[in-house]
């Protein structure tokens, strides 16, 4: 093979490498990031937060676009401020058999700062498609993503806890803030 052939292969390799080099992988700063769930009962609301979220994104910093995201959370890290309630919640979601919640994006639609993230959530041993509505804020040194989504307890085969024989609402509402150092 001649030198011209190798030169063309080299240029193709370098061009491809430059395209992939634009993507940057970042992990959320755990001390500054969180996910909170809210469970509603006619008599009160329960909120619990985890600050132990393992969230990785791949992004194009030049275009300011998030390409994909993956998240993993140990369900035992959610804290409502009441250890008895948290213990009961861990029994309800069978945390021993299903200790982690995982989300992997399949597509992200971005319009300005608004994000529509579609992906697969695995919770309580069941995987379902979900959508997360989010907003991104870029500064010189940080990317801040705030979002929310809802899931159905019964869709994930989680029994609805009851207080005074009245079950909680089926909808479990999540809000999140993930902060990444650029």
CATH fold-type name = Lipocalin
SS-based structural class? Answer: alpha+beta
Order of helices and strands: HEEEEEHEEEEEEE
Sequence stretches where pLDDT stays below 50 over 5 or more residues: none
Judging from the principal axes of the Cα atoms, what is the shape? elongated
Under CATH, the homologous superfamily reads Lipid/polyisoprenoid-binding, YceI-like
CATH architecture: Beta Barrel
User: Strand count, sense and closure of the main sheet?
Assistant: 10 strands, antiparallel
Measured by DSSP, the beta-strand proportion falls in over 45%
The largest sheet has its strands arranged as 1-4-5-6-7-8-9-12-2-3
Q: How helix-rich are the residues, as a percent range?
A: 10-25%
- Ends: how far apart? 44 Å
Helix segment count?
Answer: 2
Let me know the number of strands.
12
Q: Would you state the CATH class?
A: Mainly Beta
What report would you give on this structure?
This protein is of the alpha+beta class and 182 residues long. The chain has a single domain (23-181), classed as Lipocalin (Beta Barrel). It is built from 2 helices and 12 strands. The strands form 2 sheets. A 10-stranded antiparallel beta sheet has the order 1-4-5-6-7-8-9-12-2-3, with no helix packed on it. It is elongated and about 55 Å long.
């Amino acid at each position: 093979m001649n030198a011209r052939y190798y030169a063309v292969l080299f240029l193709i390799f370098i061009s491809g490498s430059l395209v992939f080099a634009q993507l940057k992988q970042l992990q959320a700063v755990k001390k500054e990031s969180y996910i909170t769930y809210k469970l509603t009962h006619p008599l009160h609301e329960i909120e619990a937060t985890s600050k132990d979220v393992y969230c990785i994104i791949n992004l194009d910093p030049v275009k300011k676009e998030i390409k994909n995201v993956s998240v993993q959370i140990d369900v035992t890290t959610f804290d409502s401020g009441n250890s008895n309630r948290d213990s009961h919640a861990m029994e309800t979601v069978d945390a021993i058999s299903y200790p982690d919640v995982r989300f992997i994006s399949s597509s992200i639609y971005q319009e300005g700062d608004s994000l529509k993230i579609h992906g697969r959530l695995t919770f309580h041993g069941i995987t379902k498609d979900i959508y997360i509505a989010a907003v991104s804020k870029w500064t010189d040194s940080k990317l801040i993503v705030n979002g929310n989504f809802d899931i159905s307890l019964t869709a994930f085969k989680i029994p609805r806890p009851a207080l005074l024989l009245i079950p909680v609402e089926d909808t479990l509402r999540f809000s999140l803030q993930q902060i990444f150092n650029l």
